[in-house]
Amino acid sequence: MAVINVALAGRSYDVTIEAGLLDDLARRAEAFLRSFAGRKVPFVADTNTHRLYKEQVETALSMAGYSADWFVVDPGEAAKSWAVLERLTDWLLAMGVTRSDHVFALGGGVVGDLTGFACAVMKRGCGFVQIPTTLLAQVDSSVGGKTAINTAAGKNLIGAFHQPAAVLIDPLVLNTLPDREMRAGYAEVLKYGLLGDAEFFGWLTQNGKDVLAREPAALSHAIAASIAEKARIVAEDERETTGVRALLNLGHTFGHALEAETGFSDRLLHGEAVALGMVLAARYSARRGEMSAADAARSAAAIADAGLPAEITELGMDCTGARLVDHMRHDKKMETGTLPFLLLRGIGAAYLARDVELADVAAFLDSELGL
Ligand code: ADP
Ligand code: ZN
């Protein structure tokens, strides 16, 4: 078992990683279940995590005399909407949830983001516990307190910082996760190595295959190392005001443009877009002479070896560099000629560049697109 503390003034919390944790849920979550004596415990899930893990959760709870009531959403981003938020908050009110109760989120980033935001506004803020079930949610979205829903204007534009009371991770639930989702989550694991920990990156190049194969020791190590890095960054800059937390966006500016161009669809999952986005950030850094060509090539190789897209031409998009740059500008709501950009000075050395000319990025992307 590994326990990583997220040290935030006044509301620090633990992330617990343990194979088999779900079977032991009543004990691991005891402090957050206590207020439900004689009442049902609210669990939010999607149809997949509900189908796969409802029985295991209920059995674990019943051992301590608790039982669950379930709010189940359809899988996919559409659940992060005002309409579903309204239904969820009405459901929580009907259950009599108080500010000292904790709502449990059992699912991937969609369930975690939706539940976290509902709890941020529930009676001006009730508690919640994250039980992330995708690799992406385990290493990234469940930790750090960003919660949100989507609107017509874009993804995650309506939300709140609301930290969970605990994050409970059972790596065994990843055994049912589709391989493609596993690889997409692994992109964010590689991100932690690339952005700030060359040694971890080196370890991943040796052990990445075992992580993807869910080999227990390798998987637990990768999850714990990723969370430790995220916890460190979030503790330094909880609300993304100093630029430190922005490091977590490595690969995300390019990635977001690729997601926008492919319509935020199954054609390109978020993690896949981030993977290719990190390759582009590395190559662009090399083009600026800030990273060696050899390190840019090592970054791309690590991503390709994991079965993630490392060439923009793989996506079969019919677009130009200028068009992708337009998506970036739109994303940041900026009409200027420059954007702050996460670039690399080497593996494990990301930094925020503030002098990046978008015209130059467009020319670089044209060359990547073979135009
Ligand atoms: P993310 O965590 O990457 O943001 P989602 O919340 O959209 O992703 O989940 C991705 C998909 O994986 C969804 O279809 C979800 O139902 C499914 N899923 C989540 N956890 C598991 C699991 N442990 N086993 C199988 N499928 C899962
Ligand atoms: Zn991401």
Structure description:
The chain has 371 residues and is of the alpha/beta class. The chain has 14 helices and eleven strands. The protein has a seven-stranded mixed β-sheet with strand order 1-2-9-6-5-3-4, with helices on both faces. The chain has a two-stranded antiparallel sheet with strand order 7-8. The chain has a two-stranded antiparallel ribbon with strand order 10-11. The longest helix is centred in the middle third of the chain and has 21 residues, at 216-236. Bound molecules: adenosine-5'-diphosphate (ADP) and zinc ion. Zinc ion binds next to α11. Adenosine-5'-diphosphate binds next to α3, α5 and α6.
Brief account:
With 371 residues, the protein is α/β, with parallel strands linked by helices.
Ligand kinds:
adenosine-5'-diphosphate, zinc ion
User: Helix and strand string, N-terminal first?
Assistant: EEHHEHEHEHEHEEEHHHHHHHEEH
**Unreliable residue stretches:** none
Give the number of DSSP strands. 11
SS strand fraction:
15-25%
Find the structural class using helix and strand composition.
Answer: alpha/beta
Largest sheet: 7 strands, mixed
Query: What gyration radius follows from the Cα positions, in whole Å?
Result: 20 Å
What is the residue-mean pLDDT, rounded to a whole number? 96
Ordered list of secondary-structure elements with their pairings:
Blueprint: E1 2-6, E2 13-17, H1 25-28, H2 30-33, E3 41-46, H3 47-62, E4 68-73, H4 82-94, E5 102-107, H5 109-121, E6 127-132, H6 135-141, E7 146-151, E8 154-161, E9 166-169, H7 179-196, H8 198-212, H9 216-236, H10 252-261, H11 270-287, H12 293-305, H13 321-331, E10 338-346, E11 349-357, H14 358-369
Parallel strand pairs: 2-9, 3-4, 3-5, 5-6, 6-9
Antiparallel strand pairs: 1-2, 7-8, 10-11
Helix pairs in contact: 4-5, 6-7, 6-9, 7-8, 7-9, 7-11, 8-9, 10-11, 10-13, 11-12, 13-14
Bound molecules: adenosine-5'-diphosphate and zinc ion.
Adenosine-5'-diphosphate (ADP) is lined by residues 46, 48-49, 52, 75, 107-111, 133-134, 136-137, 173, 176-177, 181.
